[in-house]
Amino acid sequence: DGGITQSPKYLFRKEGQNVTLSCEQNLNHDAMYWYRQDPGQGLRLIYYSQIVNDFQKGDIAEGYSVSREKKESFPLTVTSAQKNPTAFYLCASSISTGQNTGELFFGEGSRLTVL
Amino acid sequence: GENVEQHPSTLSVQEGDSAVIKCTYSDSASNYFPWYKQELGKRPQLIIDIRSNVGEKKDQRIAVTLNKTAKHFSLHITETQPEDSAVYFCAARYNNDMRFGAGTRLTVKP
């Protein structure tokens, strides 16, 4: 069953703690993305990766870090430097064929709450 | 990077009426413009997309138009139904950089 899987679905953390959100895909997609969704603000790009061992900052990368050691995996770490981390986080992937790139496939999301 | 603006933020229509959502983008190099629908508590899903070499695309009750010169594109839903109620996002993309609008909450009243 192909798709993109995010875990955990719900996560609570205390202030000052780092937390890592998992994103795995078995669609053989080259490109992967992390977006943050807040009410009324749409989807804001945190980081994206076009190929293994390469990634670029999006609009709101401060306080976040990523790695892309394997094609299938693109974990996101929310660090203690992120001032307002409570949000819904969406991971996505797509085929990357230069300019003829296709649709994004989204995971089900991870809801992070900082207590 | 690309900046996408979307209007209106909320839209309420009567069942059977048409709904139109508009987006503008800033980067003239963007060449792919998808529209996503997100139902409450669910992931966004693609409903229609258009590439920069096409001016209009239609799929049953939904259509998208693109004006590259003006850098704007629109989603048109005809004969709206209550199940069309959701949040709709437009996006613009160049290579692998995809940016989204802020979303439009569409409510279709029976």
Briefly characterize the structure:
The complex is a heterodimer of chains A (115) and B (110). By secondary structure, chain A is mostly beta strands.
Q: How would you describe the shape of chain A?
A: globular
Task: Describe the largest sheet of chain B.
Answer: 6 strands, mixed
What distance separates the N and C termini of chain B? 41 Å
* Biggest interface between chains: A-B, 26 and 26 residues
The average pLDDT value of chain A, as a whole number, equals 91
H/E topology pattern of chain A: EEEEEEEEEEE
Radius of gyration of chain A: 13 Å
Structure description:
The complex is a heterodimer of chains A (115) and B (110). Chain A starts with a strand and ends with a strand. Chain A has 115 residues and is mostly beta strands. Helices cover 0% and strands 45% of the residues of chain A. In chain A, strands 2, 4, 5, 6, 9, 10 and 11 form a seven-stranded mixed β-sheet that branches. Chain B is mainly β. In chain B, 0% of the residues lie in helices and 59% in strands. In chain B, strands 2, 4, 5, 9, 10 and 11 form a six-stranded mixed β-sheet that branches. A five-stranded antiparallel β-sheet of chain B has the order 1-3-8-7-6, with no helix packed on it. The mean pLDDT of chain B is 94. The chains are: A mainly beta (115), B mainly beta (110). Chains A and B meet through β4 and β5 of A and β4, β5, β9 and β10 of B.
Features:
heterodimer, A: 115 residues, mainly beta, 7-stranded mixed beta sheet, 4-stranded antiparallel beta sheet, 11 strands, B: 110 residues, 5-stranded antiparallel beta sheet, 0% helix
Compile the SSE list and pairings.
The complex is a heterodimer of chains A (115) and B (110).
Chain A: E1 4-7, E2 10-13, E3 19-25, E4 31-37, E5 43-49, E6 56-57, E7 64-66, E8 76-78, E9 87-94, E10 105-106, E11 110-114
Parallel strand pairs in A: 2-11
Antiparallel strand pairs in A: 1-3, 3-8, 4-5, 4-9, 5-6, 7-8, 9-10, 9-11
Chain B: E1 4-7, E2 10-14, E3 19-25, E4 32-38, E5 45-51, E6 56-59, E7 62-67, E8 72-77, E9 86-94, E10 97-100, E11 104-109
Parallel strand pairs in B: 2-11
Antiparallel strand pairs in B: 1-3, 3-8, 4-5, 4-9, 6-7, 7-8, 9-10, 9-11
